[in-house]
Design brief:
mainly alpha, Rhopdopsin 7-helix transmembrane proteins, 2 domains, 16 helices
Length: 400
């Protein structure tokens, strides 16, 4: 692999981290968000510092041959720990237990990093190796132990990730399950990377030369594994966010008939404030719901519970039940109230204390269903027509 093969994924991780920084600043106490940002940071640093040109430059700047080796190994260990911590926090559970498990992983890999640095310090690596340090120094005292230690640590992380993600995937559905299975696939590539590394090192111990497995095959497997795992981590989060946005926009659009109906009779000074075109869907939905509630408060004196009772009975007769019948009856009552207010905005108040009849159910009304019924319910259409006057009713009776 060439250096650009490392820099491209490093830049992608950096861009994703930059996108997350504002959220991290606003919600620093969110452990899941911190874990996501730590993972992106560690992944970007691993790719950047593992590039051959970066390795050579770090060695030159420090003046220590192969100084990049413990640096890259430490970053790989930190990346493994961040993956484990992210899965622990992502899965959730009792807060204290989640913090305790996360601390254990962090402490364990922090100690491993300290040991790696110590072994490198007491070992000897006088010849700079940019691609094959693992096999070149496989028989060197202390450096040998350092190499085995970081490979074992990565193996523990890889096996643990596969076990946790696989077990969790069997318990969930949807995009989360898909993401977890993709993470498992990515870590299978990582385990294959470790197998090739161990095979090359063991071959050196046995006096054989399989260095190409470590210097040529393993980096490609690691790159594929990291990128596949990144897709697995991001896919459920992105898809969930898209689904939430789609649901919000759908609710916003479904509320439009009710919003327009009430807006037509709302006083001009009570109209909603202007919202910028770049405002979020959540803000737009909140504003529309607020407009509807405010308009319904102003319309409340015109609510006729007799209209609602007749509409409810008609809805039940048409096969509606429960919440659907309530929403259709509410929509009919609102329609009649809008008509009454438009005809006589300063006239009598219909919903007086002496009004009899059934009352609307307590609690919030189903605004979305009410809005849908405004467009397609014959019960609501009947309530929209003016009630016949007494003279019209008498004339109808005489005709009969």
């Amino acid at each position: 692999m060439q250096s650009q093969d490392y820099y491209i994924p490093a830049a992608a991780m950096g861009a994703a981290l930059t996108f997350k920084v504002p959220s991290l600043v606003r919600s620093w106490r969110d452990p899941l968000l911190r874990a996501v940002c730590a993972l992106l940071a560690m992944a970007g640093l691993v790719f950047f510092f593992a590039a051959p040109s970066t390795i050579a430059e770090v060695n030159r700047l420090t003046g220590i041959p192969n100084f990049s080796a413990p640096l890259v190994y430490s970053l790989l260990s930190a990346f493994s720990a961040s993956c484990l911590v992210l899965i622990v926090n992502w899965r959730g559970g009792p807060a204290e237990q989640t913090r305790r498990v996360s601390r254990r992983w962090i402490i364990a890999y922090s100690l491993e990093v300290v040991v790696i640095v110590a072994l490198f310090a007491v070992g000897s690596t006088p010849v700079e190796r940019l691609r094959d340090l693992d096999t070149y120094y496989a028989n060197t005292p202390f450096i040998r132990e350092m190499i085995v230690l970081y490979l074992v640590a990565l193996t523990v992380a890889g096996v643990s990730m596969n076990v946790m993600c696989w077990r969790w995937a069997l318990q969930v559905r949807g995009w989360l399950r898909t993401g977890l299975l993709i993470i498992v696939l990515g870590y299978l590539f990582n385990l294959a990377y470790l197998v090739t590394k161990f095979t090359a090192v063991f071959a050196r111990w046995g006096g054989h030369d399989l260095d190409f497995l470590s210097s040529d095959v393993a980096p490609s497997l690691a790159s594929w594994g990291a990128q596949i795992s990144a897709v697995g981590f991001c896919l459920p989060l992105v898809c969930q966010r898209f689904a939430d946005s789609w649901s919000t926009w759908s609710t916003y659009r479904q509320l439009e008939p009710l919003w327009r109906t009430l807006r037509a009779v709302a006083p001009r000074q009570d109209r909603s404030v202007h919202i910028s075109w770049w405002s979020s869907a959540e803000l737009r939905l909140t504003q529309r719901e607020s407009d509807i509630h405010d308009a319904m408060l102003g319309l409340y004196p015109y609510f006729d519970t007799h209209v609602r009772t007749r509409a409810y009975e008609a809805a039940v007769a048409a096969g509606r039940a429960g919440a659907l019948a309530d929403a259709e009856a509410d929509a009919a009552m609102v329609t009649a109230a809008v008509r009454a207010r438009a005809a006589d905005p300063l006239g009598k108040i219909i919903n007086s204390a002496g009004t009899s009849g059934s009352t609307p159910p307590e609690g919030p009304r189903d605004l979305v269903r009410m809005s849908v019924f405004l467009r397609q319910s014959p019960v609501v259409a009947a309530a929209r027509r003016p009630a016949p006057t007494r003279s019209e009713s008498d004339s109808h009776e005489r005709t009969r």
